[in-house]
Amino acid sequence: MVQRVQRLAAYAVIVRGDQILLSRLAERVTKRELWSLPGGGVDHGEDPRDAVVREIFEETGLHAQVGETAHVYSLHVADSWRRGRRVDAHSVRIVYEGWVPADAPEPHVTEVDGSTAEAAWKPIAAVLDGTVPTVGLVSEALASYAVRQRQRTAAYAYVVKDGALLLTRTSDLAPDPGTWHLPGGGIDHGESPRDTIRRELWEECGLEGEAVDLLTVLDHHFTGTAPNGREEDFHAIGVIYRAEVGPGEPRVVEEGGTTDAVAWVPLADIAAGRLKVYGSVRAAIEAAGDNVTV
């Protein structure tokens, strides 16, 4: 009677833009070039999420995070060879969505004498058309993969004084570092937009202020890489209020956040394109009727 062998393994689909992170199987596993998702066997007593994070580091040298949910794939090969003997093999593969930091180094194998010979980012198109030869699990996982959807609602303050607009600048921790935008941010659960304006004006500008009336509502939909390295189908909704602030020079209060500077910026400088601003800034200026001809 052929021996039955069952194996539980955990893998991750890690996508960045139009590329996917793959590991090439070592020659001792297969004599031909064959790429797989980073991952491997789950040790006895090991949580599958811990297993895939461990395997990703061993095979790619990268520190990864994985999502809470996964797809499960089953492969039964009744007549298979494992370690020189014929077996009835059943593989259960748990595949998570994973991501690595946006500034992660190039992947490299850290495991010695393991089943992985190389790790690299490969074009998804080349995987799908067969240019990059892969195990069947890769195409199965890609067929089920969907970019995470995220919607964020934020409130922003439009404050004008003496022909200048109060703006804050994004830090290296934010998308598009060095870009100027209206002070504001995400509305916390249970928080009113007006309270968000009050809180954000203090954290980002060091000024006490209040929302006066609603100016406009904007939205922006795009797919890209979040600061933590995760691919997101992102929908941003911005509620913009006219606001007033009290006396004092603006200064950034919150340390280590997504804002590294604040200033009163002349509307003429914005109109002349003398600094990089988000499109929402220009849209708010237009909604307020504060366009300046230069």
UniProtKB/TrEMBL annotation:
Keyword terms: Hydrolase
CDD domains per the UniProt record, alphabetical: NUDIX_Hydrolase (cd02883)
Cofactor: Mg(2+)
Name of the molecule in the record: NUDIX domain-containing protein
Protein's UniProt keywords contain Nuclease: no
Domain of life, per lineage: Bacteria
GO MF, any single term: hydrolase activity
Classification via Pfam families: NUDIX
Matches recorded under InterPro entries: Nudix_hydrolase (IPR020476), NUDIX_hydrolase-like_dom_sf (IPR015797), NUDIX_hydrolase_CS (IPR020084), NUDIX_hydrolase_dom (IPR000086)
Limits of the Nudix hydrolase domain: 5-144, 150-289
UniProt record similarity statement: Belongs to the Nudix hydrolase family.
